[in-house]
Amino acid sequence: MADRGASALSLPDDWPAHPDPILALNRMGSFDWDLDSGLFHMDARAHEIFDMRPDEYDGDPASLSVRVPPNEAIRLDALVAQAIKDGSENYGAYFRLRLRGGALRWTHTQGYIRRDRTGRPRRIVGIVRDATDELGDLAARRDGDTLDDARREQTNVVQLTTAALAHARTVQDVIDVLKDTQGLTHLGATSLVMGLVEAGRIRLIAEGPEGSFVPGTLVTRIDEPYPMSEVVRTLTPRFIESADEFARGYPVLWPHLTDLRITSAAYLPLIVQARPIGAMGLLYSDRRGFTPEERNILVALGSSIAQSLQRAMFYEQEKDIAQGLQQAMLPRTIPSVPGADVAVRYRAATIGGSHGRDIGGDWYDLIPLPGGTPSGGGRVGAVIGDVQGHDTHAAAVMGQLRIVLRAYAAEGHTPATVMARASVFLHELDTDRFATCLYAEVDLATGVVQVVRAGHIDPLLRDPDGACRRVAVPGGLPLGLSAEFGSLDYPVGTIELDPGHTLLLCTDGLVEQPGADLDDGMLALAAFISAGPGDVRKLADQLIDVAEERGGDDDVALLLLRRRGPDGPQSGNRLQQHVAPGDPEALAEARHMIRAAVRAWGARDRSDEIELVADELITNALMHTEGAAIVTLRALTGDERRLRVEVEDSSSALPRRREAGESGVSGRGLMLVDLLADGWGVEARGGGKCVWCEFAVPPPGRP
């Protein structure tokens, strides 16, 4: 960490042995406080200001107690401790010294905190000066004990209010601070009013206590005869010191305030960069008049409040822009998906507790895909992702990334290609952001889900009976990083989504908690989903409610997709067999399985065609690839009943149609498939492919 205190004073290493002569010329003393040893060194001028001879001071700060009254010492110690604790570079304060003769003298000190590379404070260097002339008028108006009490009370109000305003992010936060019992009303004000300048008018944003609202003052013109209008016009505070003065100066307003028994009032313009942004009024029922010190404190607080209000207004404007940007970037509507129930949710992050919402780069999307199966089942791409950061730039990157992902998927590219191209796009976008993403391509006719993962958390799968588990999916590097490091390999995992099963995709804001392990978070999320309702919309609401209650500094995106179908999975609606190369028994078992299933499912009339095509696909897989073949037979329901045969192998090479010679025994396989099946195609599956074909069969009882 930089030694910011040193840079502020530009002091030599052997200071204070050779203090800056400019300090002496300006009648300022200097000190050097070694926080490790506790020694407090002062130069000759500082000894004069403290009215102490060099032989009376041994370097121990406690020795100064003979000159610093106890109440002032407590206040100074608290100020220094707070500056050290909150990482401040410097502090400053006015305090009083008791001279040898017993008289009190105002003094000002300014200290600069020097820290080591770890941020630990090691040394405080600074100045002290006589502030008698500067604050003489103020000191003269106060008796000793009365001044002690008043300064202690007002200092507490200033410190408490300023500290509270430092955490206010919205206009309502500022209002809440001022109306709180520790806010400005602690000065004894009966009522608080505040208005903001908007388009040449003053709009009332706060009034209290309840019942003190004056009809007709919700929106007033700046030229109207009201005290807030006057201070906005003149940029000058207005202190009203009696009820008679109030009644004479503002006859339109005064009759509405008689029940409050107002005896004095202070109206302050709220000015930022010489421009009025509003006005504030404090009305008192037990005070007559204001001392110069009280006026100065109120004016100073008015300036602090104006700065806080301006900051809050900028924050709210930026938040509105950011939220509008993010809403524009997220899908406006989610398309209806035949054969599935879908629910999506988004929750913005809460940064700094309850003081507002921040924008993030989380997103979801649902993309209708080309190439639905002849059985009428649709194909859809489900996306969940998270761009690094919580700002408008993250939202802008998210919007661009969502659009290109949708475009690549809609063009019909394989899931691995979609993810690789998106990574290249983000890398070439000239941004330092990366993104995690999960893309799932769902075939609702077969229930096959192909998943690619780019640094994102795994999906979860919920069974119809409520059991929920994490599905481990192989993954690649986050988008943007994979292109940067030249690794665009995104392996594809396969999930079977039976009717009634629900696929859940989410960002890590729903899982991660401070101090908790990610795996533990996934287990807790799975347990919560297991106990939740089966309806995806109700379940999504419950999940987002949990995220809302927990808060957190990360946003949450959520997508749930439940495959519709019969009330429960039917036994025997999917059969599968592994066929190893050179294993005639496995091949015979696969043929037997197909023959028995076809007849059991009421497709006896087409059994020869189905067996012949299935045998051809299995034979091709075994002959032209090096690994085993996986044969799956499915019964599909929809507008019409169909049987689907899938043969999956480990080769990514696509089958191609060849011309067979007059005496050739090969080259007719795909011609047979095309001739006998009602539909066929090829899908990428992980590192290999799946060749499928479908046959329309009449429902049971119909010829």
| Helix content bin | 25-40%
- Spatial order of the strands forming the largest sheet: 8-7-6-11-10-9
The helix tally amounts to 18
Bulk shape: elongated
What amount of the residues lies in strands?
Answer: 25-35%
Structural class based on helices, strands and sheet pairing: alpha+beta
Distance between the termini: 84 Å
Q: What's the number of extended β-strand segments?
A: 27
- Mean pLDDT, to the nearest integer, reads 80
Give a short account of the largest sheet: 6 strands, antiparallel
- Rg over alpha carbons: 38 Å
- The stretches of 5 or more residues where confidence is low (pLDDT under 50) are 1-12, 352-357, 566-572, 661-665
3D architecture notes:
Helix content is 33%, strand content 27%. The chain is α+β, with helices and mostly antiparallel strands. Strands 8-7-6-11-10-9 form a 6-stranded antiparallel beta sheet, with helices on both faces. Strand 26 and strand 27 (688-696) form a beta hairpin. Helix 6 (144-166) packs parallel to helix 10. The chain is elongated.
Topology:
Layout: H1 4-9, H2 21-25, E1 28-34, E2 40-42, H3 44-49, H4 70-85, E3 90-98, E4 104-115, E5 121-130, H5 132-140, H6 144-166, H7 171-179, E6 189-198, E7 201-208, E8 219-221, H8 227-234, E9 238-240, H9 243-249, E10 264-272, E11 275-284, H10 292-329, E12 340-347, E13 361-369, E14 379-387, H11 392-410, H12 415-427, E15 435-443, E16 448-454, E17 460-462, E18 468-470, E19 475-476, H13 481-484, E20 493-496, E21 502-506, H14 518-531, H15 536-550, E22 556-563, E23 574-579, H16 584-600, H17 607-624, E24 629-636, E25 642-649, H18 669-676, E26 679-685, E27 688-696
